[in-house]
Design a protein that fits this description.
By secondary structure, this protein is of the alpha/beta class. It has a single domain, classed as Rossmann fold. Helix content is 36%, strand content 13%. It is built from eight helices and six strands. A six-stranded mixed β-sheet has the order 1-4-3-2-5-6, sandwiched between helices. It starts with a strand and ends in a 5-residue tail after the last helix.
């Protein structure tokens, strides 16, 4: 089941190609969408209501999709909270005030089992329907909090699988490419790039454990990594 929000998009150029852009409403995915639009893609934004405790991010995703003139914005409801196993989908405390050293060790409890595998599978399905060969995802392998499904080897493996698993791939009509333009950037570099692309920081949302009205807690890993990125970039987070 999916909610479909259509916007009045910025008119695509004559060379525009369809792309599916995974959009959480956070800084990274918003920057990724902005990059795809800059590069002339007609963007179809895909978000997920997967039972996350920080569901406020979906409101941010809708704002960002509208701001950058996405052709469509779909919200797929898939309910990963049925399985739990993560502080983002179960009654497990979100880690707070962890040091950089602590965040760099191991896989944190905020990891949602198979999340990016599932998200990319949905994106792959929509891309095939659209006749698109391009999927954008804002994964990052540097400031990525230890998530295994943000690593370049995972992306390469999924791309290989995707081209074996679809009718379009088997028939040779398209070869899917998963674009990961932020993969090797630091959070500070992402902030600078977002600033150059005109990403409205105030419309984005990064917190794993927001308060009333989506107010960020300022203490979870996502908040701390975001703050670090802005401070190192020398740019104010609005």
């Amino acid at each position: 089941m999916a909610a479909d929000r259509r916007h009045n998009p910025v008119p695509p150029t004559s060379t525009s190609k369809n792309a599916v852009c995974l959009l959480s409403g956070g800084l990274d995915s918003s920057t990724c969408l902005a990059l795809a639009r800059r590069d002339g893609y007609a963007c179809h934004a895909l978000s997920f209501d997967y039972g996350q405790r920080h569901k406020f991010e979906l409101e941010a995703a809708a704002r960002i999709a509208a701001h950058f003139g996405a052709e469509r914005h779909l919200v797929a409801r898939i309910g990963l909270d049925a399985f739990g196993g993560s502080a983002l989908t179960a009654d497990i405390a979100v880690p707070k005030v962890r040091s950089a050293g602590e965040m760099s060790r191991g896989i944190p409890i905020t990891y949602v089992p198979a999340r990016n595998t599932i998200f990319l599978s949905f994106a792959l399905a929509w891309a095939e329907v659209l006749g698109s060969a391009d999927v954008f995802i804002g994964v990052n392998a540097l400031d990525y909090s230890g998530y295994p499904d943000c690593r370049p080897e995972f992306i390469r493996a999924f791309e290989t699988m995707a081209n074996l698993a679809t009718k379009a791939g088997v028939e040779g009509r398209t070869r899917l490419r998963i674009h990961t333009p932020l993969l090797a950037l630091t959070k500070a570099e992402i902030v600078k790039l977002a600033h150059e692309l005109g990403v409205p920081f105030g419309l984005t949302h990064s917190c794993y454990d927001p308060g009333v009205g989506g107010r960020p807690c300022g203490e979870c890993d996502a908040c701390l990594l975001r703050r670090k990125g802005f401070e190192e970039a020398g740019i104010e987070d609005r």
